Amino acid sequence: MTQLMNFRMKIKALYFEISSMAQDSLTQTAYEKWVTELKHITESEKVVVYTYDPWEKCYKKQTIDDENGSMMLYEIRAIKGETFSTAFKAAHPGNDFCVIEKSNLSDGIMLVLSKEGTAFKQASWDTLVTETLCLIQLLLKHNQKERNHERMNFSFQLSTSLNGLRTKKNILAELKHALQKRYHTFDYELLLSQDYDTDDTFPVQLIPYTDQETRRMSTEAFMTGEMQSEYQEESGRPCLYVPLTGEQGVYGVLKILGEKGKNIPEEECHFIAKALNVAGKAMEGAALYERTNRLVNDLKWMNQVTHELNAGLDLKEIVSLMHDRTMEVSGASEVGVVFINEWHDQFHEIQSISTPYFHTQQGRSFTSYIIKQIREKQESVFAGNLPDQTEVTHYCSVMAVPMMHNGAVEGAVIAVHEEAYSFSLDTLKLFQSFIQHSSLAFSNALLKAELETAVITDYLTQLYTRSHVDEKVIEHMLTGNGGALIFFDIDDFKTINDTYGHHIGDEVIIQIARIVESTIPKDSMACRWGGEEIAIYIPEADISDGLIVARDIRENIAHETEPAVTVSCGVASWEKDQTDSARDLFGRADQALYEAKETGKNRIVLEHNKHLNC
């Protein structure tokens, strides 16, 4: 009994010292002291300590034995479900060893003693086993505590470093730095649902969504928000797919490749997932911050554009603004502004301010294709890789937003880019909002232009009104060098009305108006001066120029009207060096016209009684 008590006291004293040494760190010195002292106490020939390495899934010898210790293998590998004792004895057949073991999923300590030379009885052996298991349990708890403390420090430092970062680039850079510092033998790759600039922090790939790819681990991790793992046979490396998860969704998947030939312990996998959960929340915060800033900037931009649109711009200025702002908001390579004729559904007009592509043959065909799509669907056209759908254009990214007013499509603004998926949904939404505001301003400007045109346009002939030409002649006489004024009057027009009716008389006036429009020089102005009188003003022309135009018009009217009619004509002119006024000019032309009608009709009479019967 005394011998057993003495043995127990020695064991307890040794194990107390070992446990005290382990409070700081269980070093090689502690292992060596454990083995050396235990050999002496138990009088065993061999005593060896093995610890379980979960990274390599094997048991490794932690002590250096004497010259006979070489008989024990440095590494012991157990097959799945096999204990260390069974694996050890299988690796050392014919040797009589006693094994004391205790392990968990991530750690384990095994004490091996040779029975040869053992001098104590069964009671002493039971005491050794009991005390050793208590020590191993204590050391395992200490090891777990150390790992938890070290992981807690890592998580705290990672959270601290990520706190306050507001861009994805900075967050990913900090995450990479932390991971490479802790797992320097690992490789990393970032898998994203959409492409964005990460400043080459991680190699980046897009997550596939096609039916053939949905079973991929990366896609599974992204869709479920749960970590996935696999062993890559080709590379011989373990692989983790860890989602970067926030409260509102998954912002990417980090692919982690472990060291070749090694394992990533399950406990370490869960820790990595928790650590990256911190990064996922930081990514979410950065995404929300960036989105908030973008929305604020979009609102500022839209407010500025609205002010510009409400500044009373004319139609041409609004079209120019739509073009410039579309280029600005979309970053497009080409922009086209298209108007649709409300009276002819198939007719659309590409505005001159559109970029060169839209004025090419391919550009016109592409525009027709887009307008057809808009008319059929009554909504925007948005495509990331259009050549997959049609060969009408080589541009991949397309945004086309219709200009709608009272349910009718009045036009469209089209933006294109060579790169696939160049336009984001956020860009499309802002673009649509901009075009919606622009459409209202465009419609107002169009109505304003139509009203202004109506004020200066004769309802029947669509020529200018008398007041408008009167005003323009007065303006030109103040700034120009000269001009010719021609008055026409339909001969015997009352007879036309009496014979054919007033509606035919109106048709004759309209025919004459069209002939006048097609005959007069480009810069000239024609107006309906009275009931059946038409006046023409030709800027920078003399009396002979006026005579030529009058002769052409008189001849065309005689040959092209139905029923056929003739006209009498009076021509007057003014020159800069002579004192003159618009009132006098009108009077002279009117007097010449009176003389033409009084002297036989179907004549041209020049002012100052100079007339020529044509």
Q: In a nutshell, what does this entry contain?
A:
The chain has 614 residues and is α+β, with helices and mostly antiparallel strands.
Give the percentage of residues in beta strands: 15-25%
What is the architecture of the largest domain at the second tier of CATH? 2-Layer Sandwich
How is the main sheet built?
7 strands, mixed
Distance from N terminus to C terminus (CA atoms, Å) equals 155 Å
**What structural class is derived from the secondary structure elements?**
alpha+beta
Number of helices: 15
Q: Determine the fraction of residues in helical runs and give it as a percent range.
A: 40-55%
Number of domains: 4
Features:
5-stranded antiparallel β-sheet, 614 residues, alpha+beta, Beta-Lactamase, single chain, 7-stranded mixed β-sheet, 4 domains
What does this structure look like?
This protein is α+β, with helices and mostly antiparallel strands and 614 residues long. It folds into 4 domains: 2-148, Beta-Lactamase; 163-289, GAF domain (Beta-Lactamase); 315-445, Beta-Lactamase (2-Layer Sandwich), CATH 3.30.450; 464-612, Reverse transcriptase/Diguanylate cyclase domain (Alpha-Beta Plaits, 2-Layer Sandwich). The chain is built from 15 helices and 22 strands. A hairpin with a 4-residue loop joins strand 9 and strand 10 (250-257). The protein is rod-shaped and about 160 Å long. The model is unreliable at 610-614 (pLDDT under 50).
Which helices and strands, and how do they pair?
Blueprint: H1 2-22, H2 28-42, E1 47-53, E2 58-61, E3 75-76, H3 84-91, E4 97-103, E5 108-114, H4 122-162, H5 168-182, E6 187-192, E7 204-206, H6 217-224, E8 228-232, E9 237-245, E10 250-257, H7 266-309, H8 315-330, E11 334-340, E12 348-350, H9 361-377, E13 381-383, E14 397-405, E15 408-417, H10 425-455, E16 464-465, H11 466-479, E17 482-490, H12 493-500, H13 502-519, E18 525-528, E19 533-539, H14 543-560, E20 567-575, H15 582-598, E21 604-606, E22 610-612
Parallel strand pairs: 6-7, 16-18, 20-21
Antiparallel strand pairs: 1-2, 1-5, 2-3, 4-5, 6-10, 8-9, 9-10, 11-12, 11-15, 13-14, 14-15, 17-19, 17-20, 18-19, 21-22
Helix pairs in contact: 1-2, 1-4, 4-5, 4-7, 5-7, 7-10, 8-10, 12-13, 13-14
